[in-house]
Amino acid sequence: MKKTAAVFLTLLLAIAGIGLPIWLAIEESERQAYKAESVRALGFASDILVRADETGRQARGGVDRLKALHADNPCSPAAIDLMREIDLGSSYLQAIGYIERNQMLCSSIAGQSRVLDLGPPDYTTSAGAAVRRQVRFPFAAQNSFIVLEFDSFAAIIHQRLIVDMANSEPDIALAVLSLEDPAPIIVRGKVKPEWLRRLGRERQVVFVDNGSVVAVVRSQRFLTAGVAAVPISYLESRSEAVARRLVPAGLVAGVMLVAAIMLLGRQQMSLPNAVKMGLRRKEFFLEYQPVVELATGRCVGVEALVRWRRPTGEVVMPDLFVAIAEDNGMIVRLTGQVLEMVAHDTRHWLAAHPDFHVGINVAPADFYAGNLLLRLQETLEAMGAAPGNLILEVTERGLMDPVVARENTANLRRHGFALAIDDFGTGYSSLSYLETLELDYLKIDRSFIEAIGTGAPTSQVVQHIIRIAKDLGLRMIAEGVESQAQADFLRKHGVQFGQGWLFGRPVSFGEVVRQMEAAELAEAALVRAAG
Ligand SMILES: Nc1nc2c(ncn2[C@@H]2O[C@@H]3COP(=O)(O)O[C@H]4[C@@H](O)[C@H](n5cnc6c(=O)[nH]c(N)nc65)O[C@@H]4COP(=O)(O)O[C@H]3[C@H]2O)c(=O)[nH]1
C-alpha cells in the first residue's frame, strides 16, 4: 500500500474509531432519556387514571346508597344527612345532590335552601351517566366542578383534585379523556383528544407528538383514559445530563480503540523490520520433531523447525514469519542461522550416531542463491558430521525452475546430501518432471494423512502418492501422523517413516535425546527380561 493511502486510511480509521463511540454514546443517552421520560409520563397518566377511577367508584357507590334508601323522597332531611355522610366519607367527592330537569333541588352543601340551575349535560355515557364538565356554583364561584349524574342523584367533583400532581412542573399536561366524547373531562395544560386514537386496542401507549412525550393509559373500569404529556425540553435536558456522563466514556473508548488499531497496524506494518531486528538479535531458536521408522517405532532422525521468541516473550510460529522473511529477502540469512543452530545443537549426538539424520527446510531462495553447497559444507565441518546426516527438505516451489532444480539436486547429491521433496501433492509438479530430478525422500503432506480413513475425496490421494513415490524409487516420510490407525495404514502400504504428534511434538534437541535414551533403556530392559 502506498504511504499516502496508508496515512489516509489511518486518518479515516481514527475519525471513525473516535466518532463511532461518541455517536453511540449520544444515541444511548437519547435512548436512555426517552426511556426515563416515557416511564415518567406513563406514571403520571396511570396516577390520574387511578384517581379518576376511584372518583367514579365513590360517586357510583354514594348514589347507589341514596337510591336504595331515599329514592321516594330524595330531598328529605334524612336523605340530605346521608348525602353529607357520603360526602364526608369520600376522598374525591366535594358534594352530593339531587337533580330534576337540570336543576339541583337539594345537596349536601346547600341542603334544600337553594335550587341551582345546572343547564343540560355535556353528554351521557353508554352506562347512563350524564356528565356536566364545567359547572360553577354561586357558593364557590371561582372554581369549576364536574357533575356526574346517575338516575337524578349527582356527585360534584372539584376539577383540580384529580390532576393535582407534579405541581412543581406545571408545563406537564394532564387529562382524563372519555372514549365516548371528544372533549376532555378534566384537563390541565394542552391535550389533544386525537391522542386517544393512538391507543388503538392497546392498554397503554407512549409516543412523541407536538413537542411532548405523550403517554395514554386506558381505564380497566370505565370508558376513560388517563393522559400525560411531558414537554420534550425535559427529555433534552435529561439526555444532556446522560450525555455528559456517557460521551467522555465514549471518547476514552474511541481513543483506546484508535490507539489499539494503530498499535496493531504499526506492529503489522513493521513486522518485516521486527524480523530483521530478530535476526540481528538472534531471537530465533529451533525445536526438533522426531522422525520414526514405522516398522520398528525407532527414532531415526528429526526435523528442525524454527521458532521466534519476541522480546515480549511471545513465541511466534514459522507460518507467520517465514513468508515475511521470504518476501523481504531475509530467508537466506534465516536459513544461515538455522544451520548454525543445528550444528550447535546436534554436534555431539551426530558424532556418536552417524546414521541419524536431521531434516532442514531449505527455502526456494536458498536453493537459487548459488552458495548453498558451500554453506552446508561449513555447517558439516562445524558439526563434525557426514553429509548423509542432513536431509534437505525442498518444497515443490523450490523446484520450479527445471534447469536450476536439476543442476542443484544433482550437485548436492553428488556431495552426499540427502534430498526430500516437502509437502508433496500441494503444488503443481508433474510426475514426469519429478522423474528427471535426483531425490531421496518424498514427504507426504499432513493434509493427505489427515484424510486417511475419513471417506473424504482426498482420502484416496495418499495411495496415489505412495504409488508415485514407489515408482520413482523414493523413500517416504508421512507428516502429521496423529493416530495409530494412520500409522498402521501407512506401514501396511509401504511407507517407511512417520512424523507427527503420535510419535512426538517438536521439542528442544536435548529433550529429543532424553526421550531416545529413555526408549533405549526401556528396550534394553525388555531384551534382558526376554533373555
Ligand atoms: N496438526 C499437526 N501438525 C503437526 C503434526 N506433526 C507436525 N506438525 C506440524 O507440521 C509442520 C511440519 O513442518 P513442515 O511441513 O516442514 O512445515 C513447516 C515449514 O514449511 C516451515 N518451516 C519451519 N521451520 C522452517 C525453517 O527453518 N526454514 C524454513 N524455510 N521453513 C520452515 O513452517 C512450516 C510450519 O512449521 P510448524 O508450525 O513448526 O509446523 C510443523 C509441525 O509442528 C501433527 O501430528 N499434527
Explain what this protein looks like in three dimensions.
By secondary structure, the protein is of the alpha+beta class. It has 2 domains: 3-234, no CATH class; 272-530, TIM Barrel, CATH 3.20.20.450. Helix content is 47%, strand content 22%. The protein contains 15 helices and 21 strands. The strands form 3 sheets. Strands 13-14-16-17-18-19-20-21 form an 8-stranded mixed β-barrel, surrounded by 5 helices. It has a 7-stranded antiparallel beta sheet with strand order 3-2-1-7-6-5-4. A 5-stranded antiparallel beta sheet has the order 9-8-12-11-10. A hairpin with a 2-residue loop joins strand 6 and strand 7. The two termini are 71 Å apart. The mean pLDDT is 88. The chain binds ligand C2E.
What brief labels describe this structure?
47% helix, binds ligand C2E, 531 residues, seven-stranded antiparallel β-sheet, TIM Barrel, alpha+beta, 2 domains, eight-stranded mixed beta barrel
Low-confidence stretches: none
Number of domains: 2
Shape: rod-shaped
CATH superfamily of the largest domain: EAL domain
Radius of gyration: 47 Å
What's the CATH class of the largest domain, please?
Answer: Alpha Beta
Alpha carbon gap, first and last residue: 71 Å
Assign the CATH architecture of the largest domain.
Alpha-Beta Barrel
What ligands are attached or bound here? ligand C2E
Structural class: alpha+beta
Mean pLDDT: 88
| Biggest sheet, spatial arrangement of strands | 13-14-16-17-18-19-20-21
β-strand percent reads 15-25%
Total strand segments: 21
Question: Helix segment count?
Answer: 15
- CATH topology assignment of the largest domain: TIM Barrel
